[in-house]
Amino acid sequence: TQGKVITCKAAVAWEPNKPLSIEDVEVAPPQPGEVRIKILYTALCHTDAYTWSGQDPEGLFPCILGHEAAGIVESVGEGVREVQPGDHVIPCYQAECRECKFCKSGKTNLCGKVRAATGVGVMMTDRQSRFSVNGKPIFHFMGTSTFSQYTVVHDVSVAKVDPQAPLDKVCLLGCGVPTGLGAVWNTAKVEPGSNVAIFGLGTVGLAVAEGAKTAGASRIIGIDIDPKKFDVAKNFGVNEFVNPNDHDKPIQQVLVDLTDGGVDYSFECIGKVSVMRAALECCHKGWGTSVIVGVAASGQEISTRPFQLVTGRVWKGTAFGGFKSRTQVPWLVDKYMNKEIKVDEYITHNMTLLEINEAFDLMHEGGCLRCVLSL
Length: 375
Ligand code: NAD
Ligand code: AHE
Ligand code: ZN
Hints:
The protein is an alpha/beta fold. Helices cover 26% and strands 23% of the residues.
């Protein structure tokens, strides 16, 4: 297949909110600096649903969504040195080139090398897409497009992982689990004994809980409007629960009262700006830090009284938990293999690519953390 167009199945989002449609997609060979991957497993993340809904200002249609996956390199373009056909890999929507000013800064995991192209659904070299259906180009998504049996990504967006690792599990290390763990370990840097509040107990929020537990946090307070989330959250380290619907007071007040003035760290893992405000305002005066993890819709803005910051609360955000993707995703896979982090526990459903619309329905129903699709 090397150097040839591959025709395979992919789920195409033709328009916002219209059911994804399984199409025969043509996938062009990788150009210089690109890697073509046979995707074996992909999970669904809330961000896929967000862009599909039409609320993402960077959303382009038609496109192939998907960014939490694992597969095997099928072929590589000219100049690609770090991976070769047969390597087991995880595509990384957050690239790491190790050469740009972001990568060299030591201050961030954001990488500037291919971001301009991935934000507009094309590849860097020629600003074209590698996907088409009957000659019509289909946009890439987040530089990954994993809802396809084959995809093409930039070489700076591929992490090579332990070939022994089960790809149907470690695909989760492409987004949600590292995001939550890293929000705690890298962005907030939670210390032992801290009190932590987590808004939203989906996969990302539960991974925050797991990260907080391993960081030695004392009180790990989970906040969700879906009471079904509370039982499962215990297994991830959440030791207190608050359902905002059980209270008349604003949720920030409930938390301030519960914690003698506020929490040391809070995490918004939903994507709602009103909750982001509550998450900041439930932090302790003088030092409480709130990390925004959730992705909010186009046009939404955060607000609070500046006095909240004047009096020492800190507002931060995180992308992919601050992890440097190509360097640290393999390290996270090794930690999973050594049983130091959970992954299997987040997988509540397994389905096939053909059932992708049903899989999205499950996500909206709540009983689902991660659904892994086999391709
Ligand atoms: P999810 O849908 O599985 O979980 C969200 C949870 O929030 C659910 O349990 C839901 O019941 C709860 N919830 C909804 N409204 C609430 C409210 N008002 N108060 C309390 N709880 C409420 O989503 P996920 O896959 O875990 O992703 C969470 C968020 O993180 C999404 O916005 C996603 O786009 C974002 N995300 C960001 C990054 C990043 O790098 N920053 C990475 C991955 C995901
Ligand atoms: N295109 C969206 C932004 C979406 C967003 O913030 N994405 C996160 C990852 S979410 C993964 O599930 C991220 O990493 N952002 C940093 C970046 O460079 O995109 C919008 O609203 O414009
Ligand atoms: Zn995601």
